[in-house]
Amino acid sequence: MKILTTIKKVVDVELNIHVENGAIVEEGLQYVLNAWDENAVEASVQFKENNNAETTLVSIGGGEDNTKIIRRGFAMGIENGIQIDDPVLAEADSSVTAKVLQKVFEAGNYDLVISGKQAQDTDSGQTGIILAEYLGLPCVSNVIAIEVIDDQHIQVSRLGDAGTEIVELELPAVVTVSDSINEPRLPQMRGLMMAKKKKIDVMDLAALGTSHDEVGGATPTSEVVEFMKSKTRKAGQKYEGDAAEITAQVVDLLANEAKVL
Amino acid sequence: MAKVLVIADIKQGVLKGSTTELLSKAKAIGAETAVVAIGSNIESLIPDLVNAGSDTQYIADDSGLELFSAGPYASCVVDAAKQFGANLIWFGFSESGKAVAPRVAAQLDAACATEITDVMLEGDQVEVTRPAIANKVMQRVKVNTEQLVAVVRAGAFEATEGITGTENVVKLSPPAPDLKAVIKELLSDASGEIDLADADIVISVGRGAKDQAGVDLVRELANDLDAGFGSSRAMVDGGFMAHNKQVGQTGKIVAPSLYMAIGISGAIQHLAGMSGSQVILAVNKDTEAPIFNVADYGIVGDLFEVVPVLREEIKKIRG
Ligand SMILES: Cc1cc2nc3c(=O)[nH]c(=O)nc-3n(C[C@H](O)[C@H](O)[C@H](O)COP(=O)(O)OP(=O)(O)OC[C@H]3O[C@@H](n4cnc5c(N)ncnc54)[C@H](O)[C@@H]3O)c2cc1C
Ligand SMILES: Nc1ncnc2c1ncn2[C@@H]1O[C@H](COP(=O)(O)O)[C@@H](O)[C@H]1O
User: Fold this and answer.
1) Do B313 and A251 lie within an 8 Å CB cutoff?
2) Which domain holds residue A186?
3) Is A119 within the bounds of a domain?
4) Which is nearest to A153 in space by CA: B180, B178, B184?
5) Centre of ligand 1 from the C-alpha of residue A137, in Å
6) CA distance to partner chain B, nearest, from residue A203 (Å)
7) Which chain B residue has its CA at the smallest distance from A20's CA?
């Protein structure tokens, strides 16, 4: 079985993020592997360990930070790495990203794509699902467990609105994973050393056999025109002291000041 | 004139309030409205769909649609969107909406935006706003396609008082089942508890409650108040709370009039799910806990002492 794992470099959400003149201030930002993609990598590596799957990751993006997240994937146990590095993709939306991933998939003859359910920078949750549509493949999103049935079938559990949905998927297929699916392993020192020596297969769109136009890059379906500060809540009043006293006081305020009780 | 197709949010046979909110917004921007309802044995909901503010009702009613399956559900939406000539296709916030919207967009070659908080129309130009980076920033997004498929963030739009529509039912033919993604079983977590999305008050419990006894203590408070009972991820991971009770970026987005965070630190991913609440009360023994940065009222104390007093005092007030 051949698995393709999609990974993205995202801004570290734990840091302060400032907006100026409609754009995010780059200074002081740091980039990390998208948390949900870490779950995707872990799920893929478990496939390698338990089912002898061959694992490949793909990341669209450039720069040192992108190399770092790919190496992290290697250090966690992924065997092969593809990087699509093309400056024209800097502003790619989900649909363009999915078209590029489609080309990668078609060049590799994979049985399963495992994506994070969401990227922490866009918080969009679309790319894997759109990729499946473009490929005409079955897809289940928000997956919390995967089991292999046989060479052609897997069974996945999905967190849905009414409960956990158990779905049998015919391969090839695409799944997007929730953070509830596993606890990603920390890369070991030895893994990190080996990961440094591994070759990354770096390609631009031409090398991938496509072009900016073909992936819809010139006509994105939507574009972010401006970033704005989000409304932040103001910290209210904190009450400290005798538990019974302050609690009674706050209940009174909830009822008579905020009028929500 | 804009044409808005709203996907009816039906849970356990009941039409949810988000449907009215979305249709209200559609009317407020002067759009023609339609709704598409998908499920099994849902014809009885037609009056509710009309009352929610729709002027056309597309009904996909088939026993094959009883259990959610993204492929067939997407086919129904695409069918209705084409028949109606919709240029705006809106889902309320739900796991099924998040799964179906990108499919519909891909099939229609349309833009897709999730978690939108507003829609701006100027002539033919459509723009939306939405949060990104765990709510740390907002984005204004310009739509370049004729159609926009969007998932609306919970609580973003308000229902208009006295809204109603007209009955004009169009039956959709049942979609083909997805033979490559077969739903085998639904492990229902319908617990009889109040749906977090509907609750006027939501009370969530965090790791500070430690164990089952702590969770049960907070649950009693929720029961007293007929409140929705939610949780941080820590208590879901710990096996104390069901997955569908998780509030936050990967769980439910809630915007009740009162949210109580009991023994929750206030990690950014939790805040992303509840910071739209009208009033927030936090109970935490750590005076530096980040939850206090967003709470209107903060009780610094041990929840095992505070919660019993909360129950008592609230009983006094409510009688
Ligand atoms: C990709 C990703 C997605 C995530 N999605 C979510 C999500 O959707 N929802 C979510 O909640 N989290 C989510 N998380 C996890 C999140 O980062 C936090 O780990 C989690 O919210 C912590 O839960 P907690 O506040 O209950 O626990 P902790 O952070 O351990 O906090 C416990 C709090 O209880 C207080 N406390 C302890 N004892 C007492 C006592 N006796 N009385 C009063 N207070 C007490 C402590 O002071 C502390 O502040 C996500 C994380 C990632 C990486
Ligand atoms: N530039 C990219 N390179 C590789 N994978 C990506 C990229 N952008 C998005 N993805 C994948 O798509 C998922 C969802 O992204 P999004 O739709 O932006 O929320 C991510 O978790 C990644 O697995």
Assistant:
1) yes
2) 2-203
3) yes
4) B180
5) 37
6) 26
7) B137
The long-range contacts involving B271-275, CB below 8 angstroms and separated by at least 24 positions, are B271/B134, B271/B135, B272/B131, B272/B134, B272/B135, B272/B248, B273/B247, B273/B248, B273/B249, B274/B202, B274/B204, B274/B247, B274/B248, B275/A233, B275/B135
Report the alpha-carbon distance of residue B48 to residue B169 in Å, rounded. Answer: 12
Give pLDDT tens digits for A132-183: 999 999 999 999 999 999 999 999 999 998 889 999 999 999 999 999 999 9
The residues pairing with B138 across neighbouring beta strands, listed in sequence order, are A228, B131
- Is the separation of the CB atoms in B10 and B16 below 8 Å? yes
Pick A166's closest partner by Cβ from B185, B250, B309. B185
Question: At A180, which CATH number?
Answer: 3.40.50.620
A234 CB-near residues (< 8 Å, 6+ apart)? none
| Contact residues on chain B for A24, CB-CB shorter than 8 A | 137
- Tell me whether residue A187 is in a domain: yes
Check: complex ipTM more than 0.90: yes
CA distance A182 to chain B (A): 10
Count of structural domains within chain A: 1
Spatial distance between the Cα atoms of B238 and B206, rounded to a whole number of angstroms: 10
Confirm whether A230 is domain-assigned. no
Question: Chain B residues with CB inside 8 Å of A236's CB?
Answer: 280, 295-298
Show pLDDT as tens, one digit a residue, over chain B (319 residues). Answer: 899 999 999 988 999 999 999 999 999 999 999 999 999 999 999 999 999 999 999 999 999 999 999 999 999 999 999 999 999 999 999 999 999 999 999 999 999 999 999 999 998 899 999 999 999 999 999 999 999 999 999 989 999 999 999 999 999 999 999 999 999 999 987 666 788 888 999 999 999 999 999 999 999 999 999 999 999 999 999 999 988 899 999 889 999 999 999 999 999 999 999 999 999 999 999 999 999 999 999 999 999 999 999 999 999 988 7
- The answer to whether residue A54 sits within a structural domain is yes
